[in-house]
Amino acid sequence: MKRILLPTDFSDNASSAISYAVQLFKDIECKFYFLHAYTPTAIYAGNIADSYAALKIFEIEKENINLNFKKTEESIKKEFSNNKHTFTSISAFNLLVPEMKELIEENDIDLVIMGTKGATGAKEIFLGSNTMYAIKKIKCPVIAVPSGYKYQQPKEILFPTDYKVEKSNRYLEFVREICSLHGSKLHFLNAYYHVPLEENQKRVKVFLDAFFIDNVHEFHLGEDQDLIDVIETFQINKKINFLVMIHNKHSFFENLLFKPIINKMVYHTNVPFLVIPSEERIARL
Fold first, then answer.
1. Are 43 and 57 in contact (CB under 8 A)?
2. Mean pLDDT throughout 21-29?
3. How far from chain centre, in Å, is Cα 140?
């Protein structure tokens, strides 16, 4: 059984991510964990947390959260009835990412699926602050689902890579599982600047070719273009509807996601985005 954590603030964006999750794994036995982390704004100073007024605020907050959980689960079960899926709701008086980290450890979570921004997120932000922070801080894969995304089966998957992938990465199996589950075609894309691959990079390429031997896959070169432009062009030409990337110690991922250059691809990267932590990152977290 797959265990999947679904953070939610009960926004339309969070609902889209939940809908995507249950459709992506409709043929797999899954236990889904809804998580809502909250810090009531009225609890802000002094000893108010000990007062009667504060306790009433907590009670009201909990009632509203439980009602929203009930509405969410009923809506999902009505639209996507599936006896392979079970749901557990968790609310926590805590910051979201620290709570996620605890639940991942306690419940042996396999995957997190979350929206790219919250209800009040600015449109120009591709990955909201919570999603970005989660990607950087948690030990399991994250699928970020763009706001308003309508489910498409991931038939064309893009995997940009510099071929500095650890062969021992446990989550490569997850990519293979997605490909097998949906009959996907996997596209490995390397940006080429007339610098030959090093020997280790060549070995990794051979490894990936063998590892995905039972899945349809191709290797591509994007020549003489900025990395972002290579990805954008490829996404459009191949009608990509799922993106995979490994977050490793090298600068490839950091340059793409955590620097201002990301602003160049915000309006083009409009497909679900799976981020896999490297083994090296997992060891450091």
1. yes
2. 97
3. 9
Tokens standing for 21?
Answer: 């999750």
Q: With contact defined as beta carbons under 8 Å apart, do 184 and 156 qualify?
A: yes
CA distances from 236 to 216, 229, 233, 270 (A): 20, 11, 5, 11
Structurally, the chain folds into a number of domains equal to 2
pLDDT at 50 (0 to 100): 58
| pLDDT for res 268 | 42
Domain assignment present for 194: yes
Q: What is the DSSP letter of 5?
A: E
- Kindly report the CATH number assigned to the domain that includes residue 165: 3.40.50.620
In whole angstroms, give the CA distance from residue 227 to residue 80. 38
Residue 154 to residue 159: CA distance in whole angstroms: 12
Domain holding 20, by residue range, is: 2-145
pLDDT at 66 over 90: yes
Residue 37 main-chain phi, psi, to 5 deg: -105, 140
Distance in angstroms (rounded) separating the CA atoms of residues 111 and 134:
12
62 contacts 40 by C-beta, under 8 angstroms = no
126 and 176 assigned to the same domain: no
